Amino acid sequence: MIALGPLLPLFAAAGILLAGNGLQGTFITLRAAMEGFPPWAIGLMGTTYYAGFITACIYGPRLIKAVGHIRVFAALAALAAAGTLALVLIVDAYAWMAIRYLMGFCFAGLFTVVESWLNENARNQDRGRLLSVYRLVDLGAVTGGQFLLPVYGAGGFALFAITAIMFCISLVPVSLSNRSRPKAPESFRFDLGAIWRIAPLACIGCFTIGLTNSAFRLIGPLYAEKIGLDVTGVALFMSAGIVGGATLQFPFGLLSDRASRRVALGVATAGATFAGLFLSLVADGSPALTYAGALLFGAFAMPLYSLSAAHANDRAEPGQYVLIAAGLMFFFSLGAMAGPSIASLVIELFGARALFLYTSVVHGLLVVVTLWRIATRPGVPAQRRTRFVTLLRTSPMIFRLARRANHNRSGHKRDGRKQATMGAAPERDA
């Protein structure tokens, strides 16, 4: 049996944060449109959110090392609550961009705290199951949070208050949990050149995923509203994408274990390309077809980050895993900074249905790059791979937890080094 008791407060805090952040990401887009903000401004709010996110990925561990987990968590949760209330008090596009930067910084920092704490307190034999529980918390919290949107609507004060309350309440389980003092995240030299040399395809993949998944997550509500869905329809559309993201994670993981990381990455990217075309050219505003398209898009697009990360870790050496974690998060965030702005500009120039033509073009380019890498660099036998692990895009700390979980499952050495990767043994096929 997995010993969840000591970790329940952290799961509770994570669930509350995930629900509140997921809800805010959806309703803030709708509210900005109601306030008359132009699409380009709504897109820039997504850009500044991920700019804050990437800043916290770099400086968050330093804050934790300086003052400790609980103090950093308390400070960032308080800032997130204050920023949420400031959104409704200062209705100005540029002020909202600045606040969304703050929110991105807060949430990347908050999840760095939670996940480094989970990693420190988890028993070695429980890490794989702990990751599974964490993914269920993520899926349930984010999906459930979406349905507060039709209950309260995006037009009043209620959702601002509810999300601010969530961020404050997340302090309770963390503050009243055990008195353990986890170690601060380890320091490392951030070297983008080294990360690129280890796995260029993974870097390109994470950048591409940032361009497209951030557009779906932050501009998707605007797309759904512009094609005529009501508030309940917007919630269903976003939830379909989230649920879809959970359905094919393990099948693609199995494919990547038995065939090739790059083959699985190419198949998933091709599926995301066709799902985008389906939404743009076939759904034609039909609610049922639109929800089905969102489900398909999530099913193929959401696993791409885990597949890219597994591929990178196949090629990493011991001691490089934290660097890989931060580097891939950096490339994802770099793409995610550009994605919402590009997507909003596409909608402004060509209409709502062009959003998924944009994602299809970007995914299609990744398919071409993947096929080129497969053609120019051979892979290795399947028996040299260990098991695939799916990941949340919350903070670099989730990589460390996943890496240790996979190491515990393999429990032996091959080719003179421990198989401490998140997805495979050294399948040198980048």
From TrEMBL:
Q: Which GO terms describe its cellular component?
A: plasma membrane
Q: Where is the Major facilitator superfamily (MFS) profile domain?
A: 198-430
UniProtKB keywords: Membrane, Transmembrane, Transmembrane helix
Q: Where is this region: Disordered?
A: 406-430
Which residue ranges have biased composition labelled Basic residues?
406-416
The cross-references to InterPro entries, in alphabetical order and at most eight, read: MFS, MFS_dom, MFS_trans_sf, MFS_YcaD-like
Task: Name the source's superkingdom.
Answer: Bacteria
GO molecular function per UniProt: transmembrane transporter activity
- Known CDD domains for this protein? MFS_YcaD_like
- What is the name attached to this protein's record? MFS transporter
Q: Indicate the transmembrane segments per the record.
A: 40-60, 72-91, 97-118, 130-149, 155-177, 198-219, 231-251, 263-283, 289-309, 321-343, 355-375
